[in-house]
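INTERNAL AUDIT FORM
Audit reference: QA-55
Scope: verify that the stored structure record matches its stored sequence.
Auditor: D.O.
Record contents follow.
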Amino acid sequence: MDNNQKLTAFMQRISEHMDAQIAQEESDTAQETVSFLQAEETEGIAQANAEIEAARRAMHFDHRKRLSQTSLHTKTALLLKRKTLQTELFAALYQKLLDFSHSADYADWLVQLIQIHAPEAGDTICLRAEDLPLVSKLQAHCNPTCKFESDPNIHLGGLSINAANGRLCRNHTLDEAYAAQQRDFYRNHPEQGGTVQ
């Protein structure tokens, strides 16, 4: 083999070796590129998932906050409406009791109270000031030693019977009946709803 052939063979081997190195470098670069792209894709997916999760949490928080605000607004409106209805209901009840105490049936009702609760000798029967003209009608149905007095705490009507010994007071006033209705209503209809214990 002459020098030209040797040189050509040497160059051929160098070229093949270079081609193999270039092919290996291209393969390594392609592999590194694929690994890099896969890592970037994995990182991008993880970052996108984290951002999606953060957005989902923020939306969930906002939704709960709006739901809570709506619930509070609804409860407040309901309580205000309930309070308005209660006020109207008790105002109407008060007016009906007041109207009854100015009706023709009122004096007969007082007589029935005296007959049912039969005051004993020496008891004091308390009435509102405007009912004192009915005393003569009421005295005919109780012990003659009973006393009648005006009570400034009676506004709607009715009567209370105070025992002569001062130990017993039987309150049969419309004021007490009205107050009892209010107590029973609030006891049996709690403002927060639910069942009564």
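Auditor finding: record pair retrieved intact. The mean pLDDT is 86.
Action required: none
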